[in-house]
Please model this.
Amino acid sequence: MFIELPARLHAAVPNYIGPLENEVEAVFDPAKNPKLQNGECARWVLTDANGQAVGRVAAFLNRDAVDVKNADLPTGGLGFFECIDNQTAANQLFDVARLWLAARGMQAMDGPINFGERDRFWGLLIEGYDLEPNYGMFWHPAYYRPLFENYGFELYFKQYTCYRTTAAELHPSFAKRAEEHAGTYRFAHARKQDAEKLAQDFHHVYNLAWARHSGVKPMTLDEARKIVKEMKPVVDERLLWFAYHGEEPVAFFISLPELNQIFKHVGRRLNLVGKLRFLWEQRRYMQRRDKKLFGIIYGVVPEHQGKGVDAAMLVYARQAFIDAGYAEIEMNWIGDFNPRMLVTTRSIGAKILKTHATYRYLFDRERPFERMPIIR
Model:
């Protein structure tokens, strides 16, 4: 009932693409989600008088997370919310999650978020209802926003999905940067057959560029290896770009083919039939010259920020994208608390296409609310 509800609620929406059911179940499986080793989660389904599901929600806390360990405001998570357009029903779902978290010492809850990394199942869609969701992102109807806000959730931060075509020219300053850095930096895409090097390079840049941010935990090399292994069946190595200073990787722009453009023809169940269908649809899609890619993560090691190495890297990456038949780029998960990244996206001519919101609810209703701190 938990898994099947969203497809039933949104069946009439032409641009709805549901997540893979096995990937949702994996979030709640201790054998597949390492965060359950030192965490807890619970799921609920709300039914009507006839026993039909009309809502669902999950609550979770990861005791290793920065927000959970925050002595001043320990914060748990709420996610996987789906509901009919009924405030009373939504309130019951929010209440049960809040009480469960409060019983475990939490003083606030963020939602809707994922019991895992921020790259998927994170945020409530608040702009872009007429567009198909990217892989790993939920589509939500417009009435979900008032359900959250009427309960008392307040905006903690926004996450933008930005868009541009690959054919659009970059500003001439980008080519100038590429020329200036030709002798100082080396730019190259990863090689899928050298998975160990890809994992090590990704691990190095990620921990230096991202692990200092609030709510982002450093990644182990084994975790990086696992990510690379999981990406291997769907990765296009021409979309995995790195900048090197000597032998040190100092920047990356990691992207994948936009997988929902394949999965929407496959269905929600990746069983044997689903896997065979995926291979067929993937082969067809990769032969097209109008493919879409989506950016997963971008980062520059602090010592090399502000030098234009990212601009130079994008010159090489853009040409590789065009040569590989990618016509459109969507870049997921650009937080409004990260002004440098927003400046970068504007500088390459990308515009905001979709917006998701992460809300926070304070259990003490008299406590002053504070938004996510801006990264300086």
Summary: The chain has two domains: 5-158+357-362, 169-348. The chain has a mean pLDDT of 93. The first strand starts at residue 39 and ends at 47.
